[in-house]
Amino acid sequence: MKLTYRGVAYEYTPIPVKMTPGKVGGKYRGIAWRHHQAESVPIHQSFARLKYRGVAYCIGEPQNIQEWEDAVTLQERYTASTYKVNNAFKSRDELTKTHLSNIRKNLERRLQLAKQRGDTNLIYLLEEEAKQIAFG
């Protein structure tokens, strides 16, 4: 059975399950219905190589050595990419400085626009906000 999920097409082959009718469970609209039980539930051995936001990972148990070796390689890639991402983050102080700088620039822009419009009430409010940022 061909299926598509979020634009990715894949082939799905459901595992056949033999069902045996059980006891009568009751009647619904005058017709008896039965409980059905699976004779034996096969365990689906799945192994998948997946990628989430650019990071590759594996789920399931590999069926042969080659799949296991591929999984180890993917794990090494994952570790390397995680290391690169963690090193890309700036320190907390740098982020704080950047954030405050952006807030000040935004406030300056809003203050200039208020002066262009001649809105004295808004100018007063923005100047008060600037004082709070300066002392905060």
Mean pLDDT: 77
Q: What structural class results from the helix and strand content?
A: alpha+beta
Give the CA-CA distance, first to last residue.
62 Å
Q: What would the principal axes of the Cα set say about the shape?
A: elongated
Uncertain runs? none
Number of strands: 6
Strand order of the largest sheet: 1-2
Strand content: 25-35%
The biggest sheet, with number of strands, parallel, antiparallel or mixed sense and barrel status, is: 2 strands, antiparallel
InterPro entries: DUF4278
Pfam families: DUF4278 (PF14105)
Organism: Mastigocoleus testarum BC008
Protein name: DUF4278 domain-containing protein
Your description of this structure?
The protein is an alpha+beta fold and about 140 residues long. The protein is about 50% helix and about 30% strand. The chain has 3 helices and 6 strands, in the order ββββββααα. It has helices at about 65-90, 90-115, 120-135, and strands spanning about 1-5, 10, 20-30, 30-40, 45-50, 55-60. β1 (about 1-5) and β2 form a beta hairpin. The radius of gyration is 31 Å and the shape is elongated. The protein starts with a strand and ends with a helix. The mean pLDDT is about 75.
List keywords for this structure.
136 residues, alpha+beta, two-stranded antiparallel ribbon, 6 strands, 28% strand, elongated, DUF4278 domain-containing protein, DUF4278
